[in-house]
Write a structure and sequence with these properties.
The chain is an alpha+beta fold and 349 residues long. Helices cover 22% and strands 43% of the residues. It has five helices and 21 strands. It has a 21-stranded antiparallel β-sheet that branches. A hairpin with a 2-residue loop joins β4 and β5. α4 runs antiparallel to α5. The longest helix has 41 residues.
Length: 349
């Protein structure tokens, strides 16, 4: 009797490899399509901005990251807006997961240089400089800018920068959550943690060579007009359209002084300087104002700051341990405390 040889089908062994091969081919095709779309849209965006007066230079565009990421590197990037503001970096890198191209993270691994129109350039280094943007299809994408232990160095010929370093700087924006804010509004959060002023500057004076921390929250009404960055400045169209910050809430700590800040509405003039009234409930304000009077900078009106310090000291003596209520007015490009014009009003950009 002859034994029959039973032949087993190899189809069961081939099918898993076939499925993996098909999936790999589909994923590779998706990655190639996505990377081509990124390159095409980047080139189209650059062309559109240049047509609007932007200057954009970089040494080519490198796209990598296969299979799970899309990584775009722009070496020797130099981007300048018509307003005169811009950034330059040895390399700018943007990354997104290939399965979620609606969320991008941009970093400057070797630091960057900030151009401040007529004020000149500032070199920014740190342990981390990154920008995150998500929900790109929304009218106002979610935006997060973060600087970890940044340092700021004004380059030759530039005006001094207010701070020399900080432990952390954070800026976040998202579509306004309050129903009454309207669909042209953005919630914004700004946080400055343990900043040190430059030698002889107003921040160093106000903190008595200590540290400055600031937390601010507000809603920007008319946010769409902030996108018009032209030769008149980023806030020109915003101001013309009645844009404003409403309300504003925050807290500031300058050395041993601490204060709560609030305003129902603030706006900016065409030069980006604040206008409006800010209510301040302060603890030991005299120390900060007296320190400001002693700063070695031409931006501070030292006699006026000294007068304001005396007035604040008298109010503090009257109230004892209770917080002192002050009103700060931003008008005519200056910061006023009562009758005293202390310094230029803060310039937002």
């Amino acid at each position: 009797m002859t034994d029959r040889v039973v032949r087993h089908s190899r189809r069961g062994l081939i099918i898993p490899f076939l499925i993996v091969g098909i999936a790999l081919a589909i994923w590779s095709g998706w990655w190639l399509y996505l990377s081509d779309q990124v390159r095409t849209r980047l080139e189209a965006q650059e062309a559109a901005l240049q047509a609007d007066g932007w200057t954009i230079r970089h040494d080519g565009t490198d796209i990598s990251g296969y299979p799970f990421r899309v990584r775009v590197a722009l070496p020797q990037a130099d981007i300048l807006a018509p307003s005169g503001h811009g950034i330059a970096a040895p390399e700018l890198v943007a990354e997104a997961n290939a399965w979620n191209p609606d969320h991008w993270v941009m970093i400057a691994p070797d630091g960057l240089t900030l151009t401040r129109a007529a004020k000149g350039r500032v070199k920014i280094d740190g342990d981390g400089l990154r920008l995150s943007v998500s929900d790109l299809r929304a009218r106002f994408p979610d935006l997060r800018v973060e600087m970890i232990r940044p340092t700021f160095t004004a380059l030759p010929g530039a005006e001094p920068f207010p701070i020399a370093s900080a432990r952390h700087i954070q800026l976040e924006t998202r579509p306004a959550q309050a129903p009454t804010a309207g669909d042209d509004s953005v919630d914004v959060l700004f946080r400055l943690v343990e900043a040190k002023g430059r030698p002889g500057g107003p921040v160093e004076g106000a903190t008595r060579q200590g540290e400055l921390s600031l937390d601010l929250e507000s809603t920007i009404i008319g946010a769409s007009h902030l996108r018009a960055i032209d030769g008149r400045g980023v806030f020109a169209a915003f101001t013309d359209a009645g844009g404003r910050f409403a309300p504003v809430r925050g807290e500031i700590r300058a050395g041993d002084s601490r204060a709560r800040l609030s305003s129902e509405t603030l706006s900016a003039d065409a030069n980006g300087r604040l206008t409006g009234t800010l209510a301040v409930v302060a603890e030991q304000p005299m120390q900060a104002i007296a320190g400001l009077a002693g700063s070695r900078t031409g931006a501070v009106n030292r006699p006026a700051a000294a007068g304001a310090a005396v007035a604040a000291g008298a109010e503090q003596a009257t109230r004892g341990e209770e917080p002192v209520e002050l009103t700060i007015d931003f008008r005519d490009g200056r910061t006023w405390l009562g009758p005293f014009a202390l310094a230029p009003a803060p310039k937002l950009f």
